[in-house]
Amino acid sequence: AAGVIQSPRHLIKEKRETATLKCYPIPRHDTVYWYQQGPGQDPQFLISFYEKMQSDKGSIPDRFSAQQFSDYHSELNMSSLELGDSALYFCASSSDSNIYGYTFGSGTRLTVV
Amino acid sequence: AQKVTQAQTEISVVEKEDVTLDCVYETRDTTYYLFWYKQPPSGELVFLIRRNSFDEQNEISGRYSWNFQKSTSSFNFTITASQVVDSAVYFCALSPGDSSYKLIFGSGTRLLVRP
Predict the structure, then answer these.
(1) How confident is the model over A76-97, as pLDDT tens digits?
(2) CB-based contact (8 Å) between A59 and chain B?
(3) Pairing status of strand B10-14 against strand B109-114
């Protein structure tokens, strides 16, 4: 069965650079969620989209932005990167009508040096 | 406020021992969902179980079992006859009853199973 695809798997950026993470949800899933997991911490909800509209917002820094495209894939854009942005970034998808399909991707490990 | 507490930061057991990971949650919603995930050293989040607030039936899946008690707002996870491959960080999570479906995670319990 198709899973949630995240790219890239690993990314190394320098401080003040920009990074773009991509998430391809499971086919027919219309909702995407982004989470950030710092070293030794639990995943923290950043933002979600349903049918290409932002549906909920968590503790996402103003330097970050995200969107969901017409094919339902989503991109998380991070600018002016800081050392503290080094983390695992997870994307999850679901069908809005069914939480039972909630599925996480394998994550993107971002390292800011 | 919605919150998940995993009071056990780290547990170390010897292989074949049984171990229980505790999870206590707070929510005012009458409809909500509870999850357990396993995060091995490779980093991915491995789904273990999901339970909705109206289903208090305990569940067993192989060596894994879950005890959901609304009266104490707990959703504990037991591994029977633990194995070295069970070593990982385990997260309990809560999803509110609104349409958001975002997950609120506990701080995780690191389980080390020694041979």
Answers:
(1) 999 999 999 999 999 999 987 6
(2) no
(3) parallel
